[in-house]
From TrEMBL:
This is Thiolase C-terminal domain-containing protein. Residues 1-21 are annotated as: Disordered. Residues 256-383 form the Thiolase C-terminal domain. SUPFAM superfamilies: Thiolase-like. GO terms for molecular function: acetyl-CoA C-acyltransferase activity. Gene3D superfamilies: 3.40.47.10. CDD domains: SCP-x_thiolase. It holds the Pfam family Thiolase_C_1. Residues 1-18 have a biased composition (Polar residues). InterPro entries: Thiolase, Thiolase-like, Thiolase_C_2.
Length: 390
């Protein structure tokens, strides 16, 4: 069974970097032009626009552009637009765009993510600190900040601590995740990290939030990525073979906090992944390429288990067996991921998965890649997507 009649027809990514000093709109226009060219579309074909999370100033450089100004800069005349600050993680705008084309609200939707976190951060106002710059902090953060849990690294750190305790995972296992993705990054000229990473380098790096060290954390950058979601019948005339959105998963069955899930060795990913597989006849064994959210390295093993590539508590052995690195059966984050490629909040991962299915990733290309799974989000929020090229 196939759930959707939506496809991905084009992707684009700007030249990314650290402290580039380029305006976010410059990055966005570069990525958007790439995406439209790759799909064989012009701005006159684009009749929808969507983004995550919408324009916001709660964290410097995190989301400087909204749909209105991007629509104006590109000269678009849209029938439909949306920004999704609340939903199944960074996958939300892709899912909403898929629903828009399936219901006839638009034919081709330009989904974008643009940020300048690297240039915008300063010693006095770190983008990684919860509620930075706010005079008051409310909601669930108000319970975490008094105990010093100011950053997502703290929240991911306690999940990793619990997982280590339950299943015997070690820092070396997470090191294998980081090193494997660095090896992929060295085959990707666009990745920001271009120096080899050894296990000694990984273990000697400074601790950020135990047991997570520097190389367990993704890399803030300046850049933009664009994904064009098209109705299946509209995609037939596009330049590339359309990638069918075979299934989407977005279920959430726990409280919307990082610390109140009944089992802290699972995430919202487990709910979203179960929802994904319930909507398709495909199985994990059918997948060729994995794009798994790696805001922190611990998220990768949790996503692997959530998606059924290994059992609960078995990720350390699955990783140690070489399954997810270069040459592995389930190559994961082949562009370097966010740990070595740079953080585009999931959009970069999806861009890489699409490029793999189109066979356009050069030295890191996975042979005969036809099916990819993408999981976005950490903690309680998550969205999952299965893509297939006929």
């Amino acid at each position: 069974m196939t759930m959707t009649k939506a496809t991905i027809t084009g992707t684009g990514m700007s030249t990314i970097g650290r402290n580039t000093g380029r305006p976010a709109m410059d990055h966005l226009l570069e990525a958007a032009q790439q995406a439209m060219t790759s799909a064989g579309l012009t701005r006159d074909d684009i009749d929808g626009i969507c983004t995550y999370p919408g324009k916001a100033d709660n964290s410097p450089g995190m989301s400087p552009l909204g749909t209105g100004e991007v629509r104006g800069a590109l000269g678009l005349k849209t029938r439909w637009h949306s920004a999704v600050p609340d939903g199944p993680a960074q996958m939300a705008p892709i899912m909403v765009a898929a629903m828009a084309v399936m219901t006839g609200q638009a034919r081709h939707v330009l989904c974008f993510r643009a940020l300048t976190e690297s240039s915008s951060q300063s010693a006095g106002r770190r983008a990684s600190i919860a509620g930075a710059g706010k005079p008051q902090i409310g909601g669930w953060l108000s319970w975490l900040v008094p105990v010093g849990a100011m950053s997502a690294s703290n929240w991911a750190g306690w999940m990793a601590t619990r997982y280590f305790h339950e299943f015997g995972m070690t820092r070396e296992h997470l090191g294998m995740v980081a090193i494997g993705q660095r090896q992929f990054a060295l085959m990707n000229p666009a990745a920001v990290m271009q120096k080899p990473l050894s296990m000694a380098d990984y273990l000697d790096a400074r601790m950020i939030s135990s047991p997570l060290g520097l190389f367990d954390c993704d890399v803030p950058i300046d850049g933009a990525a664009v994904v064009i979601v098209s109705a299946a019948d509209a995609a037939r005339d596009c330049a590339r073979p359309p990638l069918r959105i075979e299934a989407l998963g977005s279920a959430l069955r726990s409280a919307e906090t990082w610390d109140q899930r009944p089992d802290l060795t699972t995430m919202g990913a487990h709910d979203a992944a179960a929802d994904l597989w319930a909507r398709t006849d495909f199985k994990p064994a059918d997948v060729d390429v994995l794009a798994l959210y790696d805001g922190f390295s611990i998220f990768v093993p949790l996503w692997l288990e959530a998606l059924g590539f290994c059992g609960h508590g078995e990720a350390k052995d699955f990783i140690a067996a070489g399954n997810i690195g270069p040459g592995g059966r389930f190559p994961t984050n082949t562009g370097g991921g966010q740990l070595s490629g740079g953080r585009l909040h999931g959009f970069g991962l999806l861009h890489e998965a699409c490029q793999q299915l189109w066979g356009e990733t050069g030295a890191r290309q996975v042979a005969n890649a036809k099916t990819a799974v993408c999981g976005m989000g950490g903690g309680f929020i998550a969205g999952a997507m299965l893509l297939n090229r006929d």
